[in-house]
Amino acid sequence: MNKKNIGYRLFGLTFSVFRLFGIRQKKVFLIATHDDGSEGNIAIAANEMKRLEPGLRFYRLTKKDRESNLFSFFFVKAYHMATSRIILLDNTFMPMAYTPVSRRTTVIQLWHGTGTIKKFGLDADTEEIASLARRGNKRIDWLIVNGERTKCQYETAFGIPPERIRMIGLPRTDRLLNAEYMKSRRAAFFSGIRDVVREPEKHRYILYAPTFRDNELDNPKLRIDPVRILRELPEDVVILLRFHPYVAERFAAGLNLRRLPDEYKSRVIDVSLNSGVTTLMAAADVLVTDYSSIIFEYALLRRPMVFYAYDLEDFTKNGRDFYEPYEEFVPGPIVTEDDGLVKELSDLFSPEGDYDFDREDLESFLKENYRRMDGRAASRVAALALRGKHRFTAVN
Questions:
Q1: Are 57 and 26 in contact (CB under 8 A)?
Q2: Contact 385, 47 (CB under 8 A)
Q3: The pLDDT of residue 215
Q4: Which sign, positive or negative, has the C-alpha torsion 31, 34, 36, 39?
């Protein structure tokens, strides 16, 4: 038995003891181990629950909590989780394999992505991890998704029967659909970079947000050449680098942007550790990514995307693979080499400021992946949580 598994069992043991204290009706436990910021599904859903039922008390478990204070994790957090009426998660929480949740507690998995391109969860895990995740996922009462396509994929990725998957939408999409909110986040982003970019409102922005690769966890690499790209683009274009949370700190430690030529230092900014992803999407005029689920959110803004899949063949054969043929699925041009990326971006960033891309393809993508785009997902999630698993019978 490995060290992690011992930790999971210890958490389960203390959880089982604390269950004897009973459930507190005004208590909600938030497991935000992927995104504990104000723009994440957990925070937005919690705020709506607070509005609908004043007096709720919220207790939170973050990635930092899990790693920093062992006594707090195994005792304080286990106590609050065991005595909560509602548990919200945005990630897999392995100790749940050993936590016998009360029948009076409602467990809702919001996940942290709004869809998926690549296989994950039980469809990609090793058997040892999948065995634990499968046991833990049995505690989930409701798994929240945006549409039918994701529902079918998550059914196998989580090993959850379809009747426990609700297509009521993810809370974070509400903000992307709120034009005034996104305008305010764009302004906030500009305010935050004034010490780097002069007159940021007069610039255009590329957001480069690559997916997490399992084989690069300890040695992540920057696969684009910012200088080469910017040489071919108008002088008002700025590149924003946003790396996956799992590798962002390693990138920050190893990526020395000071080595850039002076004329490009204000045009390449690493924003991985100091800006929420919704704020970054509000600022971005074009998204460059590969296999990241960010495309499901960015598509709601109806702006162009370029897919820099430099390792597509290897990722298909040796990586996680995809749920659907990649070339047929993504709503934008696919390039596998630097020259292709430079060309696509040069075509988009014309001196006139117009963006010529396939809007019909993007609309088709949205219809295939969203059942509702009304900006009221948080209200539906909050209502589902507050009514409880035994009293909510409405269909998706």
A1: yes
A2: no
A3: 63
A4: negative
pLDDT digits (tens, 9 = 90+) for 3-13: 889 999 999 99
Q: How is the beta sheet containing 24-32 ordered, strand by strand?
A: 57-62, 24-32, 84-89, 106-109, 142-144, 165-166
For 176-192, the pLDDT digits (tens) are: 999 999 999 999 999 99
Phi, psi of 150, deg, nearest 5: -65, -35
Backbone CA torsion sign across 309, 281, 62, 147: negative
In percent, the amount of the chain with pLDDT more than 70 equals 91
pLDDT range class, residue 211, cuts 50, 70, 90? confident
- 8 Å CB contact between 141 and 164: yes
Amino acid 253: pLDDT: 47
**Structure pTM?**
0.91
Q: With residue 134 as reference, give the H or E element that holds it.
A: helix 127-137
- What is the number of other CB atoms lying within 10 angstroms of the CB of residue 100? 12
Q: Pairing between strand 24-32 and 57-62?
A: parallel
Dihedral in degrees, nearest 10, Cα atoms 69, 72, 73, 79: 180
The two structure tokens encoding residue 126: 């090793």
Outline where DSSP puts E strands in 215-304.
237-241, 268-270, 286-289
Sheet of 237-241: strand order equals 268-270, 237-241, 204-208, 286-289, 305-308, 334-335
Lowest mean pLDDT among 193-197, 201-205, 353-357, 376-380: 353-357
**What value, to the nearest 5°, has the Cα angle with vertex 105 and ends 109 and 15?**
90
Residue 283 contacts residue 205 (beta carbons within 8 Å): yes
Beta carbons of 378 and 175 less than 8 angstroms apart = no
pLDDT tens digits along 92-147: 999 999 999 999 999 999 999 899 999 999 999 999 999 999 999 999 999 999 99
Predicted pLDDT of residue 335: 96
Beta strands in the chain (DSSP E): 24-32, 57-62, 84-89, 106-109, 142-144, 165-166, 204-208, 237-241, 268-270, 286-289, 305-308, 334-335
Count Cβ atoms within 10 A of the Cβ of residue 341 and give its class: 0-12 exposed, 13-18 middle, 19 or more buried.
buried
For the chain, how big is the Rg over CA atoms in Å? 22
